[in-house]
Predict the structure.
Amino acid sequence: MRVPLRLQRGRKDAAPAVPDPINENIDAVVALHAFAERQVDTHQRTVESLTAWLGRPQFFYGILVGACLWMGVNAAAPLLHLPRWDDPPFYWMQGAIGLGALLMTSVILITQNRQGKLAERREQLELQMSVLTEQRTAKIIDLLEELRRDMPSVKNRVDLEAEALTKTVDPHEVLATFESRLEETLEAVGTSEEASRLVAEEIDAAAAETQGGIDRAKQDSSPERA
Protein backbone atom coordinates (compact mmCIF):
# COMPACT_ATOMS: atom_id res chain seq x y z
CA MET A 1 0.00 0.00 0.00
CA ARG A 2 1.27 3.44 -0.90
CA VAL A 3 1.97 5.77 2.00
CA PRO A 4 0.28 9.18 1.69
CA LEU A 5 2.47 12.18 1.06
CA ARG A 6 1.49 13.83 4.36
CA LEU A 7 2.60 10.79 6.34
CA GLN A 8 5.91 10.72 4.50
CA ARG A 9 6.50 14.38 5.40
CA GLY A 10 5.56 13.68 8.99
CA ARG A 11 8.03 10.85 9.18
CA LYS A 12 10.79 13.04 7.75
CA ASP A 13 10.02 15.79 10.27
CA ALA A 14 9.99 13.32 13.15
CA ALA A 15 13.34 11.77 12.18
CA PRO A 16 16.10 12.65 14.66
CA ALA A 17 18.79 15.01 13.47
CA VAL A 18 22.14 13.39 12.70
CA PRO A 19 24.83 14.79 15.00
CA ASP A 20 27.69 16.59 13.33
CA PRO A 21 30.93 16.08 15.33
CA ILE A 22 32.85 18.75 13.40
CA ASN A 23 30.33 21.51 14.12
CA GLU A 24 30.01 20.38 17.73
CA ASN A 25 33.77 20.60 18.22
CA ILE A 26 33.86 24.01 16.58
CA ASP A 27 31.04 25.22 18.84
CA ALA A 28 32.88 23.90 21.89
CA VAL A 29 36.10 25.72 20.95
CA VAL A 30 34.16 28.93 20.23
CA ALA A 31 32.40 28.65 23.59
CA LEU A 32 35.76 28.28 25.37
CA HIS A 33 37.15 31.36 23.65
CA ALA A 34 33.98 33.34 24.37
CA PHE A 35 34.13 32.35 28.04
CA ALA A 36 37.77 33.46 28.25
CA GLU A 37 37.01 36.77 26.55
CA ARG A 38 34.10 37.52 28.90
CA GLN A 39 36.46 37.35 31.86
CA VAL A 40 38.69 40.13 30.48
CA ASP A 41 38.10 43.54 32.07
CA THR A 42 38.29 46.94 30.43
CA HIS A 43 41.87 47.70 31.54
CA GLN A 44 43.15 44.42 30.12
CA ARG A 45 41.39 45.03 26.81
CA THR A 46 42.89 48.51 26.61
CA VAL A 47 46.39 47.22 27.25
CA GLU A 48 46.01 44.43 24.69
CA SER A 49 44.70 46.87 22.10
CA LEU A 50 47.71 49.08 22.77
CA THR A 51 50.01 46.08 22.38
CA ALA A 52 48.42 45.21 19.04
CA TRP A 53 48.92 48.79 17.89
CA LEU A 54 52.55 48.86 19.02
CA GLY A 55 53.24 45.66 17.10
CA ARG A 56 52.38 47.18 13.73
CA PRO A 57 55.07 48.19 11.19
CA GLN A 58 53.63 51.72 11.09
CA PHE A 59 54.69 52.27 14.70
CA PHE A 60 58.26 51.26 13.87
CA TYR A 61 58.37 53.63 10.92
CA GLY A 62 56.88 56.38 13.10
CA ILE A 63 59.66 55.99 15.65
CA LEU A 64 62.33 56.24 12.95
CA VAL A 65 60.75 59.30 11.35
CA GLY A 66 60.23 61.01 14.71
CA ALA A 67 63.82 60.41 15.84
CA CYS A 68 65.21 61.65 12.53
CA LEU A 69 63.06 64.78 12.64
CA TRP A 70 64.03 65.44 16.26
CA MET A 71 67.76 65.22 15.53
CA GLY A 72 67.50 67.05 12.20
CA VAL A 73 65.54 70.00 13.57
CA ASN A 74 67.81 70.40 16.61
CA ALA A 75 70.93 70.13 14.46
CA ALA A 76 69.67 72.65 11.90
CA ALA A 77 68.15 75.08 14.43
CA PRO A 78 71.20 77.43 14.58
CA LEU A 79 71.28 77.64 10.80
CA LEU A 80 67.59 78.56 10.71
CA HIS A 81 67.96 81.02 13.62
CA LEU A 82 65.61 78.92 15.75
CA PRO A 83 65.96 77.98 19.42
CA ARG A 84 67.44 74.52 20.06
CA TRP A 85 65.56 72.66 22.80
CA ASP A 86 67.75 69.56 22.85
CA ASP A 87 71.46 69.89 22.26
CA PRO A 88 73.49 66.95 20.92
CA PRO A 89 73.79 64.16 22.02
CA PHE A 90 70.05 64.74 22.54
CA TYR A 91 69.56 63.86 26.21
CA TRP A 92 65.85 64.71 26.16
CA MET A 93 65.28 62.31 23.27
CA GLN A 94 67.22 59.58 25.04
CA GLY A 95 65.12 60.07 28.15
CA ALA A 96 61.88 59.93 26.16
CA ILE A 97 63.04 56.77 24.39
CA GLY A 98 63.98 55.15 27.70
CA LEU A 99 60.61 55.99 29.27
CA GLY A 100 58.78 54.74 26.17
CA ALA A 101 60.76 51.49 26.22
CA LEU A 102 59.85 50.95 29.88
CA LEU A 103 56.15 51.52 29.21
CA MET A 104 56.20 49.28 26.13
CA THR A 105 57.87 46.49 28.11
CA SER A 106 55.22 46.70 30.82
CA VAL A 107 52.40 46.64 28.26
CA ILE A 108 53.86 43.62 26.48
CA LEU A 109 54.42 41.74 29.76
CA ILE A 110 50.81 42.35 30.82
CA THR A 111 49.56 40.98 27.50
CA GLN A 112 51.88 37.97 27.61
CA ASN A 113 50.78 37.21 31.16
CA ARG A 114 47.16 36.66 30.10
CA GLN A 115 48.20 34.77 26.98
CA GLY A 116 50.36 32.51 29.14
CA LYS A 117 47.39 31.75 31.40
CA LEU A 118 45.25 30.91 28.37
CA ALA A 119 47.96 28.64 26.99
CA GLU A 120 48.23 26.90 30.37
CA ARG A 121 44.48 26.28 30.44
CA ARG A 122 44.58 24.86 26.91
CA GLU A 123 47.44 22.54 27.87
CA GLN A 124 45.53 21.33 30.92
CA LEU A 125 42.45 20.71 28.78
CA GLU A 126 44.49 18.86 26.17
CA LEU A 127 46.10 16.75 28.88
CA GLN A 128 42.73 15.89 30.36
CA MET A 129 41.34 14.98 26.93
CA SER A 130 44.42 12.86 26.18
CA VAL A 131 44.03 10.93 29.43
CA LEU A 132 40.33 10.43 28.75
CA THR A 133 41.04 9.25 25.20
CA GLU A 134 43.64 6.81 26.48
CA GLN A 135 41.17 5.39 29.00
CA ARG A 136 38.49 4.99 26.34
CA THR A 137 40.94 3.30 23.97
CA ALA A 138 41.99 0.87 26.69
CA LYS A 139 38.34 0.09 27.43
CA ILE A 140 37.59 -0.53 23.73
CA ILE A 141 40.54 -2.90 23.44
CA ASP A 142 39.39 -4.71 26.58
CA LEU A 143 35.88 -5.13 25.17
CA LEU A 144 37.23 -6.39 21.84
CA GLU A 145 39.43 -8.92 23.60
CA GLU A 146 36.49 -10.08 25.70
CA LEU A 147 34.36 -10.39 22.56
CA ARG A 148 37.08 -12.36 20.81
CA ARG A 149 37.34 -14.78 23.72
CA ASP A 150 33.57 -15.29 23.80
CA MET A 151 33.18 -15.92 20.06
CA PRO A 152 33.42 -19.66 19.32
CA SER A 153 34.32 -19.11 15.66
CA VAL A 154 37.47 -17.16 16.55
CA LYS A 155 40.52 -19.03 17.75
CA ASN A 156 41.45 -18.04 21.26
CA ARG A 157 45.06 -16.97 21.69
CA VAL A 158 47.13 -14.91 24.07
CA ASP A 159 47.97 -11.44 22.78
CA LEU A 160 50.49 -9.85 25.10
CA GLU A 161 50.43 -6.53 23.28
CA ALA A 162 46.64 -6.28 23.56
CA GLU A 163 46.82 -7.16 27.26
CA ALA A 164 49.39 -4.41 27.77
CA LEU A 165 47.22 -1.88 25.92
CA THR A 166 44.18 -2.67 28.05
CA LYS A 167 45.95 -1.22 31.08
CA THR A 168 45.46 2.51 31.56
CA VAL A 169 48.56 4.64 31.97
CA ASP A 170 49.13 6.47 35.25
CA PRO A 171 50.24 10.07 34.48
CA HIS A 172 52.19 10.30 37.75
CA GLU A 173 54.13 7.15 36.92
CA VAL A 174 54.89 8.41 33.42
CA LEU A 175 56.11 11.74 34.82
CA ALA A 176 58.34 10.02 37.40
CA THR A 177 59.82 7.75 34.72
CA PHE A 178 60.43 10.73 32.44
CA GLU A 179 62.19 12.69 35.16
CA SER A 180 64.39 9.75 36.16
CA ARG A 181 65.43 9.07 32.56
CA LEU A 182 66.09 12.76 32.01
CA GLU A 183 68.37 12.85 35.06
CA GLU A 184 70.22 9.77 33.84
CA THR A 185 70.66 11.32 30.41
CA LEU A 186 71.95 14.58 31.86
CA GLU A 187 74.38 12.68 34.09
CA ALA A 188 75.60 10.69 31.10
CA VAL A 189 76.05 13.89 29.10
CA GLY A 190 77.95 15.45 31.97
CA THR A 191 80.17 12.35 32.25
CA SER A 192 80.86 12.37 28.53
CA GLU A 193 81.73 16.06 28.64
CA GLU A 194 84.12 15.44 31.53
CA ALA A 195 85.73 12.57 29.65
CA SER A 196 86.07 14.72 26.54
CA ARG A 197 87.71 17.46 28.58
CA LEU A 198 90.20 15.00 30.12
CA VAL A 199 91.06 13.57 26.71
CA ALA A 200 91.57 17.08 25.33
CA GLU A 201 93.86 17.93 28.23
CA GLU A 202 95.90 14.76 27.66
CA ILE A 203 96.21 15.55 23.96
CA ASP A 204 97.36 19.09 24.73
CA ALA A 205 99.90 17.78 27.26
CA ALA A 206 101.24 15.25 24.77
CA ALA A 207 101.49 17.91 22.07
CA ALA A 208 103.33 20.25 24.44
CA GLU A 209 105.74 17.49 25.44
CA THR A 210 106.42 16.63 21.80
CA GLN A 211 107.00 20.29 20.94
CA GLY A 212 109.37 20.57 23.90
CA GLY A 213 111.33 17.55 22.70
CA ILE A 214 111.63 19.05 19.22
CA ASP A 215 112.88 22.34 20.66
CA ARG A 216 115.48 20.54 22.81
CA ALA A 217 116.64 18.53 19.83
CA LYS A 218 117.10 21.72 17.83
CA GLN A 219 119.10 23.31 20.65
CA ASP A 220 121.34 20.22 20.98
CA SER A 221 122.02 20.05 17.25
CA SER A 222 122.82 23.74 16.83
CA PRO A 223 126.38 23.64 18.42
CA GLU A 224 127.32 20.60 16.36
CA ARG A 225 126.34 22.43 13.18
CA ALA A 226 128.28 25.44 14.32
Notes: The helical segments are 5-14, 21-38, 42-54, 57-76, 91-150, 160-165, 171-225. The two ends are 132 Å apart (CA to CA). DSSP finds seven helices and no strands in the chain.
